[in-house]
Amino acid sequence: QVPLVESGGGLVQAGGSLRLSCAASASTFPNGRAFERAVMAWFRQTPGKEREFVAAISESAVNTLYADAVKGRFTISRDNNKNTVALQMNSLKPEDTAVYYCTAGLPSVITAAGEYTYWGQGTQVTVSS
Fold first, then answer.
1. Phi, psi (5° rounding) for residue 90?
2. How far is CA 35 from CA 57, 87, 93, 97, 116, in A?
3. Are strands 4-7 and 118-119 parallel, antiparallel or unpaired?
4. Is 55 helix (H, G, I), strand (E, B) or coil?
5. Cβ atoms within 10 A of the Cβ of 41, count?
6. Half-sphere exposure of 105 (CA within 13 A, CB side)
7. 18-24 sheet: strands from edge to edge
8. Which of 42, 64, 68, 50 is nearest to 125 (CA)?
9. Alpha carbon distance 111, 65 (integer Å)
10. What is the pLDDT along the chain (129 residues), one digit of tens a residue?
11. What pLDDT does 57 receive?
12. Which residues share a beta bridge with 55?
């Protein structure tokens, strides 16, 4: 079973909005407390490039961190009662086009993809100009 499942990707015009959702599987997070302990984050990747940090949210949802490229346009949130995390993307630009991945773990470096344990399969976001 895939530990994390993303949804909400698609095709949108520049300036538009999309909301990505990520649901954690019960097998990976058998109870709410297990999910609550994980840092949740979104990364994105385009062909030929390394996976790039987008946003992260702390276990308690008190702290968030954003890449400079998306700051002020994207908002990450989580619902520990439902084991879900979301990424609201506004004012989208063509350069936001990528496959977006949801991830969970206990990273020492929040922005490093290699620090995360669980990954989803990704959802494609395409922004047309």
1. -115, 165
2. 12, 17, 32, 29, 14
3. unpaired
4. strand
5. 28
6. 18
7. 4-7, 18-24, 84-89, 74-79
8. 42
9. 9
10. 778 999 999 999 999 999 999 999 877 776 666 788 899 999 999 999 999 999 999 988 889 999 999 999 999 999 988 999 999 999 999 999 999 999 999 999 999 999 999 999 999 999 999
11. 97
12. 42, 66
Answer for the pair 19, 8: CB distance below 8 angstroms, yes or no: yes
DSSP 97: -
28: its two tokens: 């990976």
Cα(82)–Cα(77) distance, integer angstroms: 12
Where are any strands of DSSP class E within 1-129? 4-7, 10-13, 18-24, 39-45, 52-57, 64-66, 74-79, 84-89, 98-105, 118-119, 123-128
Q: Which pLDDT value is given to residue 31? A: 64
